[in-house]
């Protein structure tokens, strides 16, 4: 459908609502484009109907009233009502058919080359790149990469309560439901960083449950995946090395995994390459040494109710751990 | 006092009024939610470490701050729910099963090897116990240990309670935590104990 071209002035007005990086109007994927075309088509048709109704009503109010009686008036009335009924049925039928066509096209992608398991939990996202060969499998949190122009199959799961996976620029919403697996196929047609977030109220920090989808060319994607498969880098500075030792001896290691070390907890996000992600705490803060320190020092003030406790640390230990985390590229 | 007499209306009107007032009060009390404190102040968590065990490591005195917190780890629904979460997260079930024991002792046979007090349970989790119970002091923070202890105490409680953790997602394999324990679970009798774990049941 090429209707979007005519809507440019309207879109300019609406651009005030779009944040750019996360907007259904900034459609960059197969499903999102189909949904956007559908809604624009429906809005156009409904606007036309609304205008017609208002015009006819205005005309009925303004015209000089002339009492008509008899057979001619009856016939006129019959024609008017019949036309209204036929038009209503026709328009509803066309909209239903358009909606059916769009919905069918959303589920057509079956030749996915990449499968990612998306485990939503209070309040972060776990992205698992499963593989029969465990040396190729890896996982990350709150940020994942996909190859551009390829269908990607997402298996949506939930650990605790119902969440909903939504990247407005790439696809429609799909719920993550505990105890079952929903499948969403999406495709990004243009490289870029797309923001998504939980779209089903899931508790206190629902609004701080965002993630990023990085769509990139196949070669870049393969390079990223190869880098993610690596075990964590060894700290180079003395400060970071001390941070690693603190991390292993404190409760940190009981909930977080850093592959290549003895830290193998599974209830918190995998931190093997935490320094390579652009945000921490599900999109709450940019990844810098300062924000890492702030988060580790007092997670319950930054994101009240989340499951990360305040671990008692001295100021030196806090500095060392932050240096270690920042270095885990 | 004359103004307080109810000569001006029929008695049933007064009774209905009193009923509605009582309902209103109940609704207001129900509406005032239990306040939740997510952030445990560092001085409080430091104080929570200060448990004083008896020399035989069974029971003892909890820190003063525990009473200042209204014993929330035993009575607060949120804390019990967090304890239930940690029971899974920190692998308690791998030895203690659903609470009926396995390679570790049962919490539901009516016999606590080190007594049923919170202090004993906190100490068991934090510092470990002989014959296989590991210490969790480097795996959990002290407030998490208190939350988990409250939950474990509720599994083996001798009587029903008004505060409960969230429900199971899976099929129930034992009575709910806040229920009165099923008598049959006590009749099974406790696991045999080692001589250094206190008197035999």
UniProtKB/TrEMBL annotation, chain A:
Subunits I and II form the functional core of the enzyme complex. Electrons originating in cytochrome c are transferred via heme a and Cu(A) to the binuclear center formed by heme a3 and Cu(B). One of its GO terms (biological process) is ATP synthesis coupled electron transport. This is cytochrome-c oxidase. It catalyses: 4 Fe(II)-[cytochrome c] + O2 + 8 H(+)(in) = 4 Fe(III)-[cytochrome c] + 2 H2O + 4 H(+)(out). Belongs to the cytochrome c oxidase subunit 2 family. The chain crosses the membrane at residues 39-59, 79-101. It is a multi-pass membrane protein. It is found in: Membrane. Residues 111-227 form the Cytochrome oxidase subunit II copper A binding domain. GO terms for molecular function: copper ion binding; cytochrome-c oxidase activity; heme binding; oxidoreductase activity. Its main location: membrane. The keyword ATP-binding does not apply. It holds the Pfam family Cytochrom_C. Residues 238-329 form the Cytochrome c domain. One of its GO terms (cellular component) is membrane. Residues 1-23 form the signal peptide. It comes from Rhizobium deserti. It comes from the Bacteria. Its EC number is 7.1.1.9.
UniProtKB/TrEMBL annotation, chain B:
Residues 78-156 form the Cytochrome c domain. The keyword Protein biosynthesis does not apply. Keywords: Heme, Iron, Membrane, Metal-binding, Transmembrane, Transmembrane helix. The chain crosses the membrane at residues 12-32. The keyword Metal-binding applies. Residues 162-201 are annotated as: Disordered. It comes from the Bacteria. Residues 167-177 have a biased composition (Basic and acidic residues). It holds the Pfam family Cytochrome_CBB3. InterPro entries: Cyt_c-like_dom, Cyt_c-like_dom_sf. One of its GO terms (molecular function) is electron transfer activity. Coiled coil: none annotated. This is Cytochrome C oxidase subunit III. It comes from Rhizobium deserti.
